[in-house]
Amino acid sequence: MTHEHLDHTQGLPWAAWKTHPNGELKKKLPIDYAWLTGSAKPDYYKKHKKAEKLKKTTLEMYHRIERHLRLAGQEKFQPFARFLANNNPSFTTHCVTFLQKVARKKTSYVHRSVGKPADGTPLFKVKGTHPFKEANFEIWAPEEDTSDYYGRFQPLSIAAAGAGAAKAAPELPIPPAGVDAGDFYNLVNTRLSGVGDNMLAIDKAKNNTSVVFLLEWRGWRLLFAGDAEVRSWKTMHREGVLKPVHFLKVSHHGSHNGTPEDDIFEAILPKPAADKRKRSACISTWTDTYPRIPHGATNARLKSRCELSTTLDDKEKPFYDVKFTG
After folding, report:
1. Cα(253)–Cα(268) distance, rounded to whole angstroms?
2. What is the pLDDT of residues 57-75, one digit of tens each?
3. Is 0.70 surpassed by the pTM of this model?
């Protein structure tokens, strides 16, 4: 479990709890080892009081936003229903509790360790936490103390998002060609009310607690970045953990804020390549699920450095195989 967002926690619980329309689905997969992000540990906030205080503030803001949008009416609520569902603290906690208990042998709560070996690379001590014999792992993120990932909130303005706000604000921009005027002004007014900025702050706080790990096997380096956003990438860069890789699971479903700027990007997919092995990247996403995805500019940046595939390439088969040879 990379981090505590519903789209990253509900898969296994869903399989265990739900009944599929075509028949029984209730399957609890036999899992020996589980890795969860460090802040999901049951006693985490007893030991990290600053993070606990900031999480409490974040939960209060989430509930304020939810009330704010519901009072504004269904028209204003609906565009943000997905955000509210993905950050729903009650159901997400329900799923995390399931994942805390799913492993038959050991559950590990992982983060980049404080200690550094002689070569200066921070490593997570993974002995006894997985069954693999040849693979080596490095945990690049998150920090043990997640308090640095919480942003500041803006004041919520009820009036700015209220009925008729667009008519009362002649300085609002003109909708772009082809964009519904009602939807456009709802979005603008929501931004003016502080709701949009605060939702992004809540979202980022969770995404940046994503487990980012490097799997090294027979000379191949495979990097899995969860939903880590720019702030997490900057921290990894500052801590000196980044190194060239051959495979990248692109962060945050291919969103623009999941791929760092070129000076950091160069550390993991440099130009020219660090060796002659094939380099590839994959994006796990789906249509009508994540806004502004696929993000053309991000895809172009990736394609300039490696071969890119996505789960949208073949909609009849929403997965694909990556082969490592040589």
Report:
1. 18
2. 999 999 988 888 888 778 7
3. yes
